[in-house]
Amino acid sequence: MIVTTEIEIPESLYSSITEYIEAHKGWSQERVMQAALSLFLLQNGTNQPQVNNLYLDSLFNYRG
């Protein structure tokens, strides 16, 4: 299941994400956010295999 969210972020962060995506054509805004959020959760004690899988999938662009 996919859930859509709307967030406010600093313009400098948005610019950095946009520049990264433009330089790395295999990445999308969704993929960057999935990688960032799942890594944050893993680093802060989440022990859920689904989150680990989402993180690895986002890094390696795997859609299983």
UniProtKB/TrEMBL annotation:
Pfam families (alphabetical): DUF2811
Name this protein carries in UniProt: DUF2811 domain-containing protein
Organism: Adonisia turfae CCMR0082
